[in-house]
Design goal:
- By secondary structure, the protein is of the alpha/beta class.
- The protein has one domain: Alpha-Beta Barrel (TIM Barrel), CATH 3.20.20.
- Helices cover 45% and strands 15% of the residues.
- Strands 1-2-3-4-5-6-7-8 form an 8-stranded parallel β-barrel, surrounded by 7 helices.
- Helix 3 links the parallel strand 3 and strand 4.
- The chain binds phosphoenolpyruvate.
- Phosphoenolpyruvate (PEP) binds next to strand 8.
Length: 258
């Protein structure tokens, strides 16, 4: 199957890097992906480093993303950051519904939906994460879980807005464990997600929307993951903290789609 979908590889630095470390890493990523074409590349540093990393990336093709956003625009929400604030810091992507936020910080399906809508309203690109836990996986509930999460997360948006969403399929049991999903298994679930999108928004949107895989992606497994027809790139955690590794994952995506 050939696809015209442009792959997108995003690095989620999570709660790693001080401000000086983030600028050094960003500069190294910029260098590592220089000359690689055909892939949308994004780095998502901690919020305090968005402004300095934006300056480091200025003039490059590397996009800047935030790891989360609150859905309200302003007000008494101590500790939270709005989409407008993130945009003013230079972010053009925002992760929504990462499993660590869902598990540890109380993000519900409803909150993820409100965040996705707020991100779209701010004209930024949501990277909406979905994925089942190990218990759900073992109980054979993967399709049911991702179907629920995709339907809930995309509730209240139109087909045109859906085109601007990137979905990241991230099985929770694969994140940070060194135990990725098999390429075939990841592809099957990404196909399920695409079918849900088709049901919600029609075949053309489903064909165009980008679905990343995330969970222990490394240079060693990226090529086989990206060979799968429904996988349009990756959301990368641990491997994105080493510029050479992240660059190799980006190159793998370029090789498949180039
Ligand atoms: C993530 O947290 O989004 C992730 C995929 O992490 P890792 O690549 O480390 O599994």
């Amino acid at each position: 199957m050939t696809t015209t979908r442009r792959p997108i590889v995003a690095g989620n630095w999570k709660m790693n890097t001080t401000v000086p470390e983030a600028t050094v890493l960003a500069a190294a990523v910029r260098k590592a992906v220089d000359g690689v074409h055909g892939v949308e590349v994004v780095v998502c540093p901690p919020a305090v480093s968005l402004v300095p990393v934006h300056a480091v990336l200025d003039g490059s093709d590397v996009g800047l993303g935030a790891q989360d956003a609150y859905f309200e625009a302003t007000g008494a929400h101590t500790g939270e950051v709005s989409v407008e604030m993130l945009a003013s810091a230079g972010a053009t992507y925002v992760i929504a519904g990462h499993s660590e936020r869902r598990a540890r910080f109380g993000d519900t399906d409803d909150w993820v939906s409100r965040k996705v809508r707020a991100i779209l309203s701010g004209r930024l690109v949501p990277i909406m994460c979905v994925g089942e836990t190990l218990d759900e996986h073992d109980a054979g509930q993967t399709d049911a879980v991702v179907t629920r999460q995709v339907r809930a997360g995309m509730a209240g948006i139109g087909a045109h807005e859906a085109l601007g969403v990137v979905v990241a399929y991230e099985p929770v049991w694969a994140i940070g464990t060194g135990r990725p999903a098999t390429p075939e298994g990841a592809n099957e679930t990404c196909g399920t997600i695409r079918a849900v999108v088709a049901d919600l928004f029609g075949a053309a949107v489903a064909e165009a929307i980008r679905i990343q895989y995330g969970g222990s992606v490394t240079p060693a497994n990226a090529t086989s993951l990206f060979a799968q027809p429904h996988i349009d790139g990756a959301l990368v955690g641990g491997a994105s903290l080493v510029a050479a590794n992240f660059g190799a994952v980006v190159s793998a995506a370029a090789a498949r789609h180039g």
